[in-house]
Write a structure and sequence with these properties.
Strand order of the largest sheet: 2-3-7-6
Helix content: 40-55%
Largest sheet: 4 strands, antiparallel
Number of strands: 7
CATH class of the largest domain: Mainly Alpha
Order of helices and strands: HHHHHHEEEEEEEHHHHH
Oligomer: single chain
Shape: globular
Bound molecules: flavin-adenine dinucleotide
Structural class: alpha+beta
CATH topology of the largest domain: Butyryl-CoA Dehydrogenase, subunit A, domain 3
Strand content: 5-15%
Radius of gyration: 21 Å
Amino acid sequence: MLEFELSAGQQQLREGIRSIGKSVIRPMSLGWDKNKEIPEDFLRNFYSMSKSLQGAENPMADYNEGPKEKSNKPRSTNRTAAVGAEELAWADASIMLSLPGPGLGGPPVRASGTPEQKERFFSIFRDMSDQLRWGAYGLTEPGAGSDVKAIRTTCRKDGDDYILNGRKCYITNGGRAAWVVIFATVDASQGRAGQRAFVVEQGTPGFFVGKIEDKLGLRANETAELVLEDCRVPAANLLGGEEKYQSKEGFMTAMKTFDNTRPLVAAMACGIGKAAYEYARDFVKDNYMLGRPIPRYAALAERLARISRRLEAARILVWKAVWMADHGKPNAKEASMAKALAGQAAISACIDAIEICGAHGTLSEDHALLEKWFRDIKVYDIFEGTGQIQRIVISKRLMTNLRGF
Ligand SMILES: Cc1cc2nc3c(=O)[nH]c(=O)nc-3n(C[C@H](O)[C@H](O)[C@H](O)COP(=O)(O)OP(=O)(O)OC[C@H]3O[C@@H](n4cnc5c(N)ncnc54)[C@H](O)[C@@H]3O)c2cc1C
């Protein structure tokens, strides 16, 4: 049964992040954004601090503990990650995305990697006290974003290696990643069946970082172009091994990733929306006495109620989607529902928050965080599948399962 109460460890994680968010992250947030700075010193400290959140559940547990015996006990990893992601995005979504660790590269390795690959690629994140490390996920190409089956990066077997050629764009943390999960095709005419997923390690000859993008929002996070030119990748880095690719496994690896990551992206959107909501609520509380029978005040109160209602509904969808993932239940529809609603609800929250503050809301000096959240939030309805794509996924699932809720 879906559980609404957070465990003591999850509550502690949330409170710990909020406290660090308030006292350390928020005061630095605008400077990092302005300078497009990835604050490595802060991230190093945060990494140590998060280890010392005594008793708090650790969203990295699956990666840190190494290979484990399979247990029938439901996990709460996805739920814990969603709680942490929402709260850290409340503090600063760029910092959330810039956190060291496997990032978006983690779910495909976890879902499709062999035990040897999981050990090899996750073990580097177990102790980052000497050096911060990132993983990344490289699917999108110029001309192949929403249309995943259109990817053109090629892979060709050559002895014990594969030779990869192509170009990936908009890859989160791609420029600094120790390894990137790269999707390529043995034959584009085979569509989904031709796709393969490789872990390409930094320093592999023929693997280069191209342009680092200058973005509207999330400016304290890097988005990179990656180039593969006759890049020789050992066959041992083909995710899951050769036998896994008898059917559409490469494509399925990409889709399974989304089932895990879309709810987390939705949780981050809820966090940014919540930040904007709280800001507007406090502004209204400080500037108007909503109890007085003035129609304008009632309209403001109604708007705040609508923002919080939609964000709460989005969070419940997130929690359902992560609960299903933690219990091993297929959750593609729920993951897309969570992402579709959270993106829209949080974008509206950020727009409404500015409007509620009136002309003041547009002044970047007085309300600079509001302006930053307004820039940060837009992409939450674009990456990990746009809003339109989520609605297509949902309607396809509804049409193939007519049993209803
Ligand atoms: C900051 C940032 C970080 C990112 N990080 C990563 C990453 O780490 N890894 C990665 O692989 N990618 C990443 N991306 C890429 C992102 O996932 C794509 O931008 C996204 O999937 C949309 O693809 P596109 O930009 O090519 O737009 P397109 O697919 O060209 O879409 C353009 C418009 O057409 C609409 N559209 C497309 N197809 C349909 C359809 N069938 N029906 C109705 N409407 C449709 C879309 O909804 C959209 O509005 C990132 C992007 C950004 C901006």
